[in-house]
Amino acid sequence: MMIEKGRISAYEMAVMMYPAITATAILLVPAITAADAGRDGWLSPVWGSLVGFLTVYIAYKLNQYYPQETIIQYSVSILGLLPGKVVGLIYLLFYLHSNGIILREYAEFVDGVFLPRTPLTVVLGSMVLVCALAVRGGLEVMARTALVFVPIVIFLLILLIILLIGDMDPSRLLPVLENGIGPTIFGAKAPQAWFSEFLLVTFMLPFVTDRENGLKWGMFTVLAVMLTLVLTNMFILMVFGEITENLIYPVVDAARYISIADFFENLQSVVMAIWIAGLYVKITVFYYALALGTAQWLNLSNYKPTVFPLGLLMVVFALWSDHNLTELKDFLATIYPFYNTSVQTLLPLIILLLVVTFKRNQTQGGWQR
């Protein structure tokens, strides 16, 4: 049952997925990675991206077997009614919790850096309301807004890097691999958690018009995200060196360094623009997956009635997820990498292996798919 009438291209799917990964990663990952990999932290996203390539491949292969279904639906087709519903519920609770974490990251940043006297509930509620309207508009509306916002985000990020060139010192990256490759692989545990979020394409592929291009554009997006994180980590390390790990928002602190002819100064607002525009797309993608998945799990004919109630739950989860920014960052650096990858890469991989085994046994037994 197709409860989403809109259709998007594989390119539009790729454009939506780019900020869905990078929006929070460029703000928080550099410091987390630097704590493990030091000055070689710019290499860690390369190893982390391997999880992204694998996750996109898994989602695409599962979509080939079940082209009209999302992971919520084909879990039932593959595992049976009760186990499939349990797996579907795991994903719904996971995306509800993830939405809460993303919203809390947004609220902590806005509240702590720009609007310290604004109540957290106001910051959260206003963003959820805007995103809810986009999600109710459907996949096509979300794709169109992403096409508008993503070029702006990329332009502002490039502008920020260009303006910081005068403050960069390449010697802060030397010596390269002083402690071997091990720390860079260990430092990849945070980036790979973000890369595992590419499983979200499973909620879009059934509505992609040129699905044969889905794998190509998915892999291209993983590559684009990897290069973005490598460049971000690199310019942050060239500005701050080994003190990067002690910073909460290295990109914001770097923006404060900018001073050109006493005119371009204190450009935190540029980071704010990158963050808000990118995070809007990220939240809508996660929110859409949660709303669509909930409707499919409940066998509803329309997902739109679930949007506002789920938005309220997201705000509750955001308030409940952590007490403060320190706890949140600790969670993202320690538990989140394993939590994210287990649900979004390992579990789908097990499902795919079951499908492949089942289809092979059918073929050997004389049955054709």
Automatic annotation (TrEMBL):
Q: InterPro entries given for it? A: Spore_GerAB
Q: Give the way it sits in the membrane.
A: Multi-pass membrane protein
| Transcription recorded as keyword | no
Q: Which UniProt keywords are listed?
A: Germination, Membrane, Transmembrane, Transmembrane helix, Transport
TM segments?
A: 44-60, 72-94, 114-135, 147-166, 186-208, 220-240, 270-290, 302-321, 341-358
Localized where?
Membrane
Would you identify the family this protein belongs to, as annotated? Belongs to the amino acid-polyamine-organocation (APC) superfamily. Spore germination protein (SGP) (TC 2.A.3.9) family.
Which NCBIfam families does the record associate with it? Answer: 2A0309
Give the protein name, as stated in the record. Spore germination protein KB
